[in-house]
Amino acid sequence: MADPAILPEFFALLSVDIFLLLSLLTCLMDQRLPKAVPYIYQIAALIGFGHLLVSKDFLMIFGDYMRFWYNFFYLLVALANIVAINVYLAIERKLWALAKAWAGAVTFPITVISVFFVSNYSFLQGAQFPLLLLQIGLVVSAIVMGVSISMFLSPDLLNKFRRRKEVTQWK
Q1: What residues contact residue 21 under an 8 Å CB cut-off, 6+ apart?
Q2: In this predicted model, what pLDDT tens digit does every residue of 4-48 receive, in sequence order?
Q3: Distance (Å, whole) CA 157 – CA 161
């Protein structure tokens, strides 16, 4: 068994941190979200801690491949909850300014950090895939995600950019 630089349980620990962060942030936004949401995220974090306590007994039974996938799935659930809050604020509550702030301050940075750690996982580095191509893909994905989030949350942004460009051409 290879000695990975990052253990798969790191993704579960990152997910627990994300759920605790979501619990704190949704508690601060108690007027805009249902009252039970922070408690649900605290329960999800406790489930993650329980998962870490139980999984230490199964380190030798499950291989790195299996441990990676169930910890990665837990990370995906945490990231989906971040995006779900963003969509809830934007579409359901029509709080576009708050949704933009949430996307810029929470959704985008946490997603990029998670993609960074997943891309640097040694299980993926050992594959027949050049690491430089993966890192370039990470940077391009981060740029595309940032632009698409800003375009999704403010569709008139592109029109403002076009108008500004036309004004500078006439001068």
Answers
A1: 106, 110
A2: 567 888 899 999 999 999 999 999 988 888 999 999 999 999 999
A3: 6
Longest dimension (CA), the chain: 70
Burial tier of 7 (Cβ tally within 10 Å: 0-12, 13-18, 19+): middle
79-107: pLDDT as tens digits: 999 999 988 988 888 888 888 888 888 88
∠ CA 134-135-141, rounded to 5°: 85
Amino acid, res. 147: V
Q: Is the torsion defined by CA of 25, 94, 156, 153 positive or negative?
A: positive
Total-model pTM? 0.72
